[in-house]
Amino acid sequence: MAVPPSMLGLVESAGLAAVAYGPGTQEQINTATDFLLAVQNPIGKLREVMDHVGQIWAEKGATLMSLAKGADLLLAGMSEQGPAANIAEYYGIPLAALHFFPAQVLISSSGWLYSDITKEVADAQRRALGFPNTTGPSPQQLVDGGSLEIQAYDEIYFPEVAADGRRPFVGALTLELPTDADDEVLSWIDEGRPPIYFGFGSTPVANPDTVAMISAACAQLGERALICSGANDFSRVPQSDHVKVVDAVNHAAIFPACRAVVHHGGAGTTAAALRAGIPTLILFADWLDQPLWAGAVKQLEVGFGRRFSEITVETLVADLRSVLAPRYVAQARAVATQMTKTAESLARAGNLLEDTARRGRVVRFRR
Q: How many of the other CB atoms lie within 10 Å of CB of 270?
C-alpha cells in the first residue's frame, strides 16, 4: 500500500506493509484549494498549479513504477487514477479505481480543470513511458477502456450516476475502528439527554468562536453537544457542563446514541450518520465533494446544508431546531434501512477486486 505519510501508522496497525506516497494530507488539501483558486483566477494561478501537480505526479509515478511491477492488480484512489492508469497500461495489469463520491458530477461542473490541468501532466507521464498522448484520462475514458470503477457510496444519494449502469456501487467502506475516547463518551452520553454530534474531520476551522457558537446554540435549545475536533486544536476552549470535546470517536458506536449529526460534509461521516438513522446538518466549505453531500442529504430529506462561513448562533439555533423536527427524524430512520451494511460493502468491494484480478483485463485509452 502506498499512502500519504500521515497514514502510515494506520495502515501498519492493520498488519499491512505501507510506503510513503506523495504529500501529506494537509498538503493535499492545500493543492486542491489551489485547483479551486485556479478556476477563479486561471491567468494568475494556472501555470503555478500545473507545475506543482506535474512535480507531484512525477514523484508519485516513480513510486508506483517500483511498487506495481509484478502486481496482479493496481487499485487507485480518485486523485491517483490518472497516473495509476498509465502505469497499469505500461505493465499490462488491470486497474481498479475507488471513488468515494461521483467524480463525473464534479467534472461536469468544472470539466476544464481536469482537461486542461491534469491532461498536460498526464501526457508528460505518458511520453516518458513511451505512450502517445490521449484525450484523457477522465472517469468516462477509464470506464470505456475497461477499468473497474468502484463507487464507495450508496446509489440512493445520486440516482443519476446509478442510471449509467457501468459503475458498481458497494456502499461506504469503513473499518469502524474503536478510539480511546469511546467508553468515556458513551458514559457521558448515558448521564443525560442524547447529544447532538458536531465534527469537522480534516477540515480546518478558522473561526476561533466556533465552539462558543455551538455551546450557545445548544444552551438555547436545551441540548447537549459532543464536539470532535478532528484536525483542530480545541484544547484551550473553555468547557461547559453541556458540551464535551474530544479528538475523535468511532462513528458507528457513537452516532446511534446521538440525536443528530452536524458535520463538514465528508463522505464517511455522511454515510455513518445515515446508517445510524439520525438526521444530518452539513456545514460545508466550497471543498470538492462537501456541497455534493449537502445536496444529497437534502434530496433524501434527512437534513440539509449551509455554508460554514455563514453560520451564526442565530442560524445554528434555527437549523438545529429544523433538523430535529419529527419529519427529518422519521425520514432518517427510513433511509437507514436502505443503506448498505458495512460488512456487505467490504465483501462487495473485495469480490469485485478479486474478479478483476482474475480476469486480468487491461485498461487501454482511446488515442
A: 28
Bridge pairing between strands 225-228 and 95-99 = unpaired
Residue 278: what are its φ and ψ, rounded to 5°?
-125, 150
Here the cell at position 45 is 494561478
Share of the chain above pLDDT 70, in %: 82
* pLDDT tens digits, one per residue of 237-291: 777 899 999 999 999 999 999 999 999 999 999 999 999 999 999 999 877 789 9
The neighbouring-strand residues paired with 304 are 281
More confident residue, 82 or 98: 98
Q: Which residues are bridge partners to 99 per DSSP?
A: 151
Cα–Cα dist 157/292, whole Å: 9
Q: For residues 23 and 20, what is the distance between their CA atoms, to the nearest angstrom?
A: 9
